[in-house]
Amino acid sequence: MTALKIPDGRLEEWLGTLKPYQREQIDILLAGNDPETAAQLWVTTIGHANIAQFGGSSDPKPFWNLLKAEVYDFICSDDAYADTKKKLTEQGTLTHAIIVSSISSAIGAKIGMAAALIVPAIALMFFLIGQMSINAYCKLPRPSG
User: Fold this and answer.
1) 96-111 and 82-90 are packed helices; what angle lies between their axes, rounded to 10 degrees?
2) CB count, 10 Å around CB of 145?
3) pLDDT-based confidence at 45, cuts 50/70/90?
4) CB-CB contact of 91 with 100 (8 Å)
5) Which residues are CB-neighbours of 2 under 8 A, at least 6 positions away?
6) pLDDT digits (tens, 9 = 90+) for 107-145
7) Interior/surface letters 23-33, b for 16+ CB within 10 angstroms, e for the rest
8) What is the spatial distance between Cα 82 and Cα 74, in angstroms, rounded to a whole number?
9) Mean pLDDT over residues 15-40, rounded?
10) What is the DSSP letter of 142?
11) What is the rounded average pLDDT for all residues in the chain?
12) Average pLDDT, stretch 36-55?
């Protein structure tokens, strides 16, 4: 398994990586939801009727499933995202901001989404992974994407 170290940290540290407009919306979503539900709501929100939601389809649920599967692969597969993980481990101690921006860029490029659109979901997901440990997370079944 990868030697990538994910700091556990408080939720505030992970959310500190967000732009103010993202943070405002995530705080609203977190007011009545757990972090995973807030992340899912972030990437599946329909928004304005004349704008295609994330994933570009009328059903945003597959995009959430794809994002979860890619995060799982990033963390649990030695082969997936090997170049990005190598660069991250060579940096030494990783900050929350470096993790969120680097992983959002790598996953966004693979699934065809701008990193800025998935940063809040990545921050929330990595907060949760840091709370449980990589070993425990990778023992969960891979989400279907």
Assistant:
1) 170
2) 16
3) confident
4) no
5) 75, 76, 78, 85, 89, 134
6) 999 988 889 889 999 999 999 998 888 889 999 999 987
7) eebbeebbeee
8) 8
9) 94
10) P
11) 85
12) 68
Residues present in the chain in total = 145
Measure the CA–CA gap between 84 and 31, rounded to whole angstroms.
33
> What is the model's pLDDT at position 139?
92
Taking the domains of the chain in order of start, what are their residue ranges? Answer: 11-138
DSSP H helices in the chain: 11-15, 20-31, 35-44, 61-76, 82-90, 96-111, 115-132, 134-138
Which tokens belong to 45?
């929100």
Report how far residue 113's alpha carbon sits from residue 127's, in angstroms, rounded to the nearest whole number: 21
HSE of 3, CA atoms in CB hemisphere, 13 A? 9
Give, rounded to a whole angstrom, the gap between the first and last alpha carbons of the chain.
Answer: 21
Which tokens in the block code for residue 69?
Answer: 């599967």
Q: Cα angle vertex 66, ends 61, 71, to 5°?
A: 130
91, pLDDT greater than 80: yes
